[in-house]
Automatic annotation (TrEMBL):
This protein's name: Diaminopimelate decarboxylase
Cofactors: pyridoxal 5'-phosphate
Entries under InterPro entries matching the protein: Ala_racemase/Decarboxylase_C (IPR009006), DAP_deCOOHase_LysA (IPR002986), De-COase2_N (IPR022644), De-COase2_pyr-phos_BS (IPR022653), Orn/DAP/Arg_de-COase (IPR000183), PLP-binding_barrel (IPR029066)
Signal sequence residues: none
Binding sites annotated in the UniProt record for substrate: R316, R357, Y361, E389, Y418
Any Pfam family hit: Orn_Arg_deC_N
Amino acid sequence: MSASTTLAPEWLLPPADANALAESVWPASAQRDEHGVLSIAGVPVSQLQRDFGTPLYIVDEGEVRANARRTLAAFRAAAEPHGVQARVYYAGKAFLCAEVVRWVTEEGLAVDVCTGGELAVALAAGADPARLGFHGNNKSVDEIENAVGVGIGSIVIDSWAELDRLTGIVQRGTATQAVLVRVNSGVHAETHDFLATAHEDQKFGFTLDEAPGVVARIRATAGLDFVGLHCHIGSQIFGTSGFEESAARIVALHAQLSAGGEIPVLNLGGGFGIAYTSVDDPTPIESLASGIVDAVARECARHGIPMPNLAFEPGRAIVGRAGVTLYEVGTTKAVDVDGGAQRLYVSVDGGMSDNARPALYGADFSARIASRRSDDEPVLVRVVGKHCESGDIVVDAEYLPGDITPGDLLAVPATGAYCFSLASTYNYVPRPPVIAVRDGAARTIVRGITVRDLLSFDAGLDAAPAQPGSDQTNEGAG
Ligand SMILES: Cc1ncc(COP(=O)(O)O)c(C=O)c1O
């Protein structure tokens, strides 16, 4: 019995061509040459392997910039007919390094950070502190003090304890700090299950009931300027209905609080979905933007209040499709499974350390042989990593040419968001470098972490001589 007929998930159908690059999943610049070798932004993967080794995070700079421009244009175009402005913050948690900060800020985006570390990256890259927003559910006194000290644009308050900390800090200084209040609207977008209650069982934000008390205290505190509410309903959301439902609840609260003074901003967070496989069909950002902004306008009209300026925080939608991870196939193994079917396991030289998303949330990805074209019949495969975990899965189910073999390069698209940023060095597997490609040229934008680097953190080795083999790996120095 073939694996294809029994083990494939319902949504995954055998492709007409297992070499095809689904347009919605790959960077727009991805193409194959006459030998079938994949290139991104004009740089062949064979060259990338030669110069930098594998595994490798490849980021298409042009794609990041284009997504940033398109997203900003979409929200501005949606806001303009209502006479308000839209600001787009890039959610740095998706993938943050100095170059990405420069690309997105050059394209007109502000940046949101959620730890002191992310703030340090953004500042070191030259971002204007006034165009940074600071998130996080457990900001330390040091982190808040530093953020206020550098003149951060806004701080999103997540708890009473944080409000106490911030109050203490601003009362020792002279500057006024703009703050938003993070509210949990009770709309639970992950499951598209719009909970009727605002008491969602999770750690972020204040309930709708608590928020007026928080805002009253901020308004009564010298040194704090309440500029608006913030709400983020989840990630990888495809439709507008969750955002619209959430907007209705938040605008109702915004209207209630407007009785106590003008509120200039409403921040509706990020979460706009992207395609990870060819069957994913996210709503184009233009339709999402107009759907959400028009919903806010309708609700404001219903409550008889002026519409505030709007802010959004996309992460994945900016960088997700710009990233491709390149691996080398190390082994293939046909495994007999229940029911007499066989599954072909394809092991690559990375795994859950460079892409934790399948193991963390069962995320689906797709893959293609990148070093050649093959006309062999597609077979169902599971792409796995080299870690000592059976859950170390990179692509749970994909059809690839049946002659896939050790030495082939395998490319996994749509890995630009939450892959590098969630990376670990589990099993002392080195962290791959990040290579930016643009106009036929490639350069390292984040160096890899080598085994030698890892050994250098081991204080028990301080007096020991260098270990043989400790310099193995691709540092991205090519
Ligand atoms: C507050 C906040 N804003 C924005 C984002 C970005 O989400 P996405 O990358 O799905 O757009 C997140 C993601 O966790 C978030 O928590």
